[in-house]
Design brief:
It is a single chain. By secondary structure, the chain is α/β, with parallel strands linked by helices. It is about 45% helix and about 20% strand. Strands 2-1-3-4 form a four-stranded parallel beta sheet, with helices on both faces. It is globular, with a radius of gyration of 15 Å.
């Protein structure tokens, strides 16, 4: 992976079944293809590795100065309202030279909701 001053960390919940993470790996590959100048990492809240902390460590070791955390969650539940802010606050303390940005949950993006609605409508019409 190329050294870059920007890292994009896709942050998902995680599951015990490794197959659960396959779609997130595809998203990671597609984001990396669209943003070849950035480091793109995948991190998990529970059950799977790497953790968010490990992904940030890797990004920092590869020269990142800016980290954008993208929660791949449908909505703002407890993990995003409580756990993620605590995790990012700790990471800011551990990496004072890194600039952190946390995006909203992907399920809050109107274009994501529209894509889901379109997909359901097409499938239900078939």
């Amino acid at each position: 992976m190329n050294s870059s001053s920007q890292a994009i960390i896709l942050f998902a919940h995680g599951a015990r079944d490794p197959e659960w993470a396959v779609p997130f790996g595809i998203v990671k590959q597609q984001v990396q293809a669209a943003r070849p100048e950035a480091q793109v990492e995948l991190a998990f809240q529970d059950f799977m590795t790497p953790t968010l902390e490990a992904a940030v460590e890797r990004a920092a070791a590869q020269g990142a100065r800016r980290v954008t955390v993208v929660p791949l969650f449908m909505a703002q539940g407890g993990h995003l309202k409580q756990d993620l802010p605590r995790m990012v606050a700790k990471l800011r303390e551990q990496h004072p030279l890194l600039e952190f940005r946390v995006m909203s949950a992907i399920g809050e993006a109107p274009e994501i909701l529209q894509a889901i609605s379109d997909w359901v409508s097409r499938g239900a019409a078939a």
